[in-house]
């Protein structure tokens, strides 16, 4: 891979100064994560609606469909005691309002009332408007203390696949787009059980969230455009595997966790810090850390960044009027146990550019 990547783009007069700046900046010393991808049957199985799951002939990718009958979902075959979870995801094209595509870890199957969860959720879009998505964290069923942040994407995720990743260790959690860190949560002793610490599975789903996902539920799923397809490829499941029934590992996880923490994606380098700062200042439009109405005192893991804080009201939302509305209320995905989900069909109801802009 070349050490210097020059950004070439054509900027029309209507493009904002932000994107004009993107065209003039470059990234240096870029390096790729050393990831091992797997085939679908090496790490995944169907979660619900087999008839809406389409595996590629080489089993290296899978398409999840949503139509009038159902959404669809897949789940990792094992639980993981910490890990790195990644996939290149291409979202539905055309009209995608009301659709949620989720890539997340959870153990709600086993700990229904005190589960852990790490989310990346894409919240649908209206043609011509930026795609929005959110990240979230729950520990020990702390649904009333969710830690969601919401953002816009700087590209159209329906045009080509981009890599989305979740790194989870006993020390920290990092969310990535391509190889750009967009959010880090460093474990703080005062978090207690709010920090996810029990083994989790990896899920990917597509479903109808017309009641809330796009413009607060004003824009519904339009089944005139069905089926809606989201493609997942370059599947990565790294970590200490835990038996999904016994909830214990076949080997001691100590060495595997140490190896996980030693990987390049486990820490954020200075250039990654710059990229993350740039992304959050330009594209984040809600953060629980600045929501003083919800939290009189910010949760202990929050790092209050002055350049971020000055952009937000005490509701955690941007000061300036935004045109891509939506609700911050927590929703349920309709997931129960793994077995119940498998037995029933769910009802329809590039990163380098960001790093370049930060240099």
TrEMBL record:
One of its GO terms (biological process) is cell wall organization. Residues 328-341 have a biased composition (Basic residues). This is Xyloglucan endotransglucosylase/hydrolase. Belongs to the glycosyl hydrolase 16 family. It comes from Cinchona calisaya. The keyword Methyltransferase does not apply. Residues 1-32 form the signal peptide. The lineage of its organism: Eukaryota, Viridiplantae, Streptophyta, Embryophyta, Tracheophyta. Keywords: Apoplast, Cell wall, Cell wall biogenesis/degradation, Disulfide bond, Glycosidase, Hydrolase, Secreted, Signal, Transferase. Residues 31-232 form the GH16 domain. Residues 342-351 have a biased composition (Low complexity). Its EC number is 2.4.1.207.
């Amino acid at each position: 891979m070349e050490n210097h990547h020059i950004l070439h783009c054509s900027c029309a007069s209507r493009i904002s100064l932000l994107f004009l700046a993107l065209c003039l900046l470059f990234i240096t010393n870029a390096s790729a994560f050393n990831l091992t991808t797997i085939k679908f049957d090496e790490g995944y199985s169907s979660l619900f609606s087999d008839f809406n799951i389409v595996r590629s002939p080489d089993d290296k990718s899978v398409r999840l469909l949503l139509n009038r009958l159902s959404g669809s979902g897949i789940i990792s075959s094992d639980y993981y005691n910490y890990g790195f979870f990644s996939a290149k995801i291409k979202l539905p094209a055309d009209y995608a309002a009301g659709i949620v595509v989720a890539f997340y870890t959870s153990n709600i199957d086993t700990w229904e009332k005190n589960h852990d969860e790490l989310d990346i959720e894409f919240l649908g879009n209206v043609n011509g408007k930026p795609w929005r998505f959110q990240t979230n964290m729950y520990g020990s069923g702390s649904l009333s203390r969710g830690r969601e942040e919401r953002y816009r994407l700087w590209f159209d995720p329906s045009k080509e696949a981009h890599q989305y990743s979740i790194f989870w260790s006993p020390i920290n959690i990092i969310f990535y787009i391509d190889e750009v860190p967009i959010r880090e949560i460093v474990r703080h002793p005062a978090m207690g059980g709010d920090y996810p610490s029990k083994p989790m599975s990896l899920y990917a789903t597509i479903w109808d969230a017309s009641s809330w996902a796009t413009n607060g539920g004003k824009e519904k799923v339009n089944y005139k455009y069905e089926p809606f397809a989201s493609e997942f490829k370059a599947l990565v499941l790294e970590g200490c595997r835990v038996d999904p029934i016994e909830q214990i590992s076949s080997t001691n996880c100590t060495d595997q966790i140490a190896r996980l923490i030693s990987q390049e994606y486990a820490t954020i380098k200075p250039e990654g810090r710059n990229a993350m700062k740039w992304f959050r200042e330009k594209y984040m439009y809600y953060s629980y850390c600045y929501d003083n109405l919800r939290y009189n005192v910010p949760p202990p893991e929050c790092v209050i960044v002055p350049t971020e804080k000055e952009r937000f009201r005490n509701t955690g939302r941007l000061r300036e009027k935004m045109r891509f509305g939506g609700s911050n209320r927590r929703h349920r995905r309709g997931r129960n146990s793994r077995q119940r989900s498998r037995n029933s069909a769910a009802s329809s109801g590039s990163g380098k550019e960001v790093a370049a802009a930060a240099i």
